């Protein structure tokens, strides 16, 4: 009669609940640290962007200067007048200023006597852009004014112009800011000398 051999099956250690909880706590703490770190970095970046937007990249008013105004052609019989204006556009901003089509309206005693369209363009950062503006005054529009003969008898005509330049600057590559520059000028045309000895301009900017 053989000996009965007891078969001993291997036992598996059951998972330790306390060890599992500790590992989960470690993972949660690491996640919280990472979230806190990311939040701090985002806050610092936001503060830096805000400081730059309020200082270096703060939108400043462009400046338009009417350097000179000269008569190119004058036809006394038809009273047609062509004027060349030398204009400077100064961009004091740290980024370029892009503007669309411009419009200059010429008026005489409150009535429109001509319009001058202008092409779009770009004014580089911290640069001054020069441009020539050709303005044509239509004689038939002048003849419609009841005050024309009085002004001609006095030897001079008072003409005004209104130029509107609308554009935008892009700050830090994604913040867009629209800017409107309005230039209102008045000119005195001397009929005998066929020149413009005097002009004055006033600028208004909408940021």
From TrEMBL:
Q: What are the Polar residues biased-composition ranges?
A: 7-21
Q: Can you name the source organism?
A: Acorus calamus (Sweet flag)
Q: What is this protein called?
A: Late embryogenesis abundant protein LEA-2 subgroup domain-containing protein
Q: Which PANTHER family match?
A: LATE EMBRYOGENESIS ABUNDANT (LEA) HYDROXYPROLINE-RICH GLYCOPROTEIN FAMILY, LATE EMBRYOGENESIS ABUNDANT PROTEIN, LEA_2 SUBGROUP
Transmembrane spans: 35-57
Q: Which GO terms describe its cellular component?
A: membrane
Tell me one GO biological process term.
defense response to other organism
Q: Where in the cell is it found?
A: Membrane
Membrane-topology annotation of the record: Single-pass membrane protein
Domain called Late embryogenesis abundant protein LEA-2 subgroup: residue spans: 87-185
Q: Which UniProt keywords apply?
A: Membrane, Transmembrane, Transmembrane helix
Keyword Transmembrane assigned = yes
Q: Superkingdom of this entry's organism? A: Eukaryota
- Pfam families, per this entry? LEA_2
| Region described as Disordered | 1-25
